[in-house]
Design brief:
The structure is a homodimer of 443-residue chains. Chain A is α/β, with parallel strands linked by helices and 443 residues long. Chain A has helices spanning 15-34, 54-69, 85-94, 118-128, 145-170, 181-189, 209-217, 222-236, 244-257, 273-287, 309-314, 353-370, 385-406, 417-427, 433-442; strands spanning 3-5, 74-78, 108-112, 133-138, 171-175, 192-195, 262-267, 295-300, 319-328, 375-382. In chain A, α14 (417-427) packs across α15 (433-442).
Amino acid sequence: MITIDKSGCKPFANEQQINSYMDKALKGFDTLESGSGAGNDFIGWNHLPSTITKEVMDEYKDVVSRWQAMNIDTVVVIGIGGSYLGAKAAISALGHNFTAKLSNKGMHILFAGSNMSEDYLAELTDVIEDRNTACVVISKSGTTTEPAVAFRIVKQYIEQKYGMEESAERIVAVTDRNRGALKSLATAQGYTTFVIEDNIGGRYSVLTPVGLLAIALAGYDIDAMVRGAQEAEKVCSERSESNPSIQYAALRNMLYDAGYKTEILVNYNPRLLYVSEWWKQLFGESEGKDGKGIFPASVTNTTDLHSMGQYIQEGERTLFETVLHVASCRREMLIPFDKDNLDNLNYLAGRRVEECNEAAMNATIIAHIDGGVPQIKVEIPSMDEFNLGWLFYFFEKACGISGYVLGVNPFNQPGVEAYKKNMFALLGKPGYEELAAELKKRL
Amino acid sequence: MITIDKSGCKPFANEQQINSYMDKALKGFDTLESGSGAGNDFIGWNHLPSTITKEVMDEYKDVVSRWQAMNIDTVVVIGIGGSYLGAKAAISALGHNFTAKLSNKGMHILFAGSNMSEDYLAELTDVIEDRNTACVVISKSGTTTEPAVAFRIVKQYIEQKYGMEESAERIVAVTDRNRGALKSLATAQGYTTFVIEDNIGGRYSVLTPVGLLAIALAGYDIDAMVRGAQEAEKVCSERSESNPSIQYAALRNMLYDAGYKTEILVNYNPRLLYVSEWWKQLFGESEGKDGKGIFPASVTNTTDLHSMGQYIQEGERTLFETVLHVASCRREMLIPFDKDNLDNLNYLAGRRVEECNEAAMNATIIAHIDGGVPQIKVEIPSMDEFNLGWLFYFFEKACGISGYVLGVNPFNQPGVEAYKKNMFALLGKPGYEELAAELKKRL
């Protein structure tokens, strides 16, 4: 079970302030649970975990078995935003720090369609050319530019290499139930298809086929991940001040209103880099609207103590930190004894490296409190599938509640259309001629 | 030559405001060039490129040749902060997007000592166990905890595998000229040694052996990189309003004083992720002190348009962006024609992917200006060694100037000691007993 340690907020707020924000968060929780708030047609994720059936899980595993039987070693997963970050976060967090050697028996997952770098796509083809390749394409509409461009390239490659018939066995679509370009194509070609439900937005979709299929293909235990999310759903659906999602929503809104405008998600494990990126989308896209919202940033320590540490200790005092504390690591590595001891490290000889990492964390929390940076700590027992499922659901729940406390619709993203319209116009897409003329004058 | 496009600031500032900050930046430039400012014992980097000799470059190449002759395929580079980020940034920016396949004929560089994750170090040993391994250890003192711990482990591994005598040929130290634990060890063991000069701080050290040796081992052309830096030194040392380092220092301080407290460095190429991390250290550590300084953040687009894009478009209006525009890519990949055109992308068929990437960039700049986010654009002809050397020097120069405009010492980092003292105390290091007792009460 994941818990919140709020002791690092106490030097910055009295009990009364904390209690008043707990009340606000309880109201936000009520709004979410009653389905009475803004964006309530997008809360399908809220009680999703408890509805996931063995049948659905078996469908994911069927794809894994089928592709294992075909000796597929590499899967290109095409998606962007919420159709990319959940799987990327999980596969990074559960995997090996060095891609040179995988820690699991799953297929090698390569992500594409999450950028429009020509070099990236060209280099992707370098990698897959001597691999036995399949593809999962994830897009509700099938027309989002980045994944659509990548899918044209990967689909053409697979069709040319394996022929049209076999390609249909090597491509799986995750898309809308009824509509859209990708749904039409999947039906026409006979691709295996999984559904993105209408009431779950991209950034809340990691526990749907959008995330789970790729995670299963990478060789991880999605049953354990779903069990973790189910546990989290139970704990985080209690109307109680001991509910960690209510606590987190309360504390961060309290700090925001007190002038701490930037939240830095802190981890002490480089594998968690993309958990932070997933979290940034979840909170940034849910709250950053109407001229408000906490700015989400992240650091990976102790690495970034040697880069961002100076700023956090002594820069503008508008920051707070949320520390992800993973209590145990997987491997064992002791600090060796050295008879010459020129580096003066023998006081650590025979002790575990992670003990130093933990001391660095505690040391930093105290130093940053003393420097004027409030601290929230999220206690995570270990970084495995169960706890990661727990963490994903916990953050989603906290985000829905937090958005309601802030007073925004946490489930829309009106601001992402602005650049897209401009882009279509600049690329000469039919129907955007007027805007194109206007923009070209400005450039 | 790298240039600055300030047109995206003009909707937010009039000519007079811009000119007044140009004057301030010219004064900052004078302070730096005259060596009369705070921290003036750490400006050895300022006119470094023009003093780099063929002899020094040959010493790096000698290590490369020697290790090539030994068929070394993997080099563990141990360092943290400025002893890590420069080489990491360069090797990522110049390399292949997928580590599965290298784009060059150099050695495979693995970084260590930049964190204290036990899993990371254990997994490092998984990778090197079947490789022909050498090590570059970079530390001025030799006692910084992270690199010292990693070096104990890697040194022991190399000594056990190859024997003491051969180990001396497989380890190179980059350290202080005269003093310190690593210098003593290197002398005792007979390691090849390169010097970290006293007047160059870590974050300004990429063009010294700290950065160049690892970049050369990775197979990149350090002569071209140094030529780029030399060109930049010439251009950026002119006392002129057309000097891009003066322009960038002026614009960012103008925006900061106008309430834009967070600067987001934006790239459109995933290979530049660690250039952003290097930049964050450079500016964050130089300016984040005395309760002030721009908060440095970064995004990699178009990926992050689908995560941070909503916040940037419509969140708190305290952001500005600095866009790294790399004008050309290396590879060619065209968007295929599709006879069914279900995704409606045929209007792009036959065009280059990078053309879409560029359109996305221009579209986003306009959308963000319209949303209230000032834009600075850094125009970079291509991402090769020459231009990367140019970029490194340009940012260093701009940072020194910018820090003086802000009114801080851009060359110290007093805030990084706070957590270290706490950590030594918590780890039971001799001499920290009193602090340890105090901290244990607080935990």
